[in-house]
Amino acid sequence: MKNNAFLSLGSNMGIREEFLKHAISRLHQSPNIEVTALSSIYETDPVGYTDQGLFLNMVVRISTTLSPLELLKLCLDVEKEMGRIREFKWGPRVIDLDILLYNKENIEMEALHIPHPRMRERAFVLVPLLEIDRSLVLPNSDTPLVEVLDEIPDKEGVRLWKQINGEDAFALFES
Ligand code: GSY
Q1: Backbone phi, then psi, for 112, in 5-degree steps?
Q2: Distance 55 CA to ligand 1 centre (A)
Q3: β-pairing, 113-114 with 107-108?
């Protein structure tokens, strides 16, 4: 069975755009994943630990036969392959891959929480996510995510960096 999931990507070290592209190519190369939509790339002020470089963030939608835990393992493998180096938990990273949504499921496991627990507070996640699908509503919620984003104060920290649209988008990441 095919499942729809949304993943958030972020990088704030080195050749940030290349790291995003590489991670998406890597997902796309998996026989179990089809990348079905890409947001634009946004440059964003760091949230949480603020004494670090600006991030590039984006969101992709995928269609996958992987279970949520298998998808998590793949994301962690890609992060590891790309040599994610972090001096401490909230510090700079080559690539960060988070599962935001998996179908309309609520998943509470020790290793995995879906929807992503902090996505409602993060404009750097919601802006690119809603660019792909403005009609999204979180499972077990009646509030459209566009309204959740309206209530977030730090939206000016999320600036369009590279517009991605149409079929060009896939050419960018297919290598
Ligand atoms: O959770 C993802 C890593 N991260 C980010 C990020 O991707 N973008 C921004 N703007 N701030 C962040 N803080 C953390 S931690």
Answers
A1: -155, 130
A2: 7
A3: antiparallel
**How far is 73 from 151, CA to CA, in rounded Å?**
33
Q: Is 122 a catalytic residue?
A: no
CA nearest 70: which of 39, 27, 125? 27
pLDDT at 84 (0 to 100): 65
Q: How many residues does the chain have?
A: 175
Task: Give pTM, 2 decimals.
Answer: 0.93
Q: Name all contacts of 73-78 with Cβ < 8 Å and 24+ positions apart.
A: 74/27, 74/30, 74/33, 75/7, 75/99, 78/23, 78/26, 78/27
* Residue 130 contacts residue 145 (beta carbons within 8 Å): yes
Q: How far apart are CA 3 and CA 99, in angstroms?
A: 13
Question: Would you say the CB of residue 53 lies under 6 angstroms from ligand 1?
Answer: no
Dihedral in degrees, nearest 10, Cα atoms 3, 124, 20, 6: 0
Q: Whose CA is nearest to atom 6 of ligand 1?
A: 10
Tell me phi and psi for residue 73, to 5 degrees: -60, -40
Q: 33-38 and 55-64: which strand pairing?
A: antiparallel
126-143 pLDDT, tens per residue?
999 999 999 999 998 999
Q: Are 48 and 90 in contact (CB under 8 A)?
A: yes
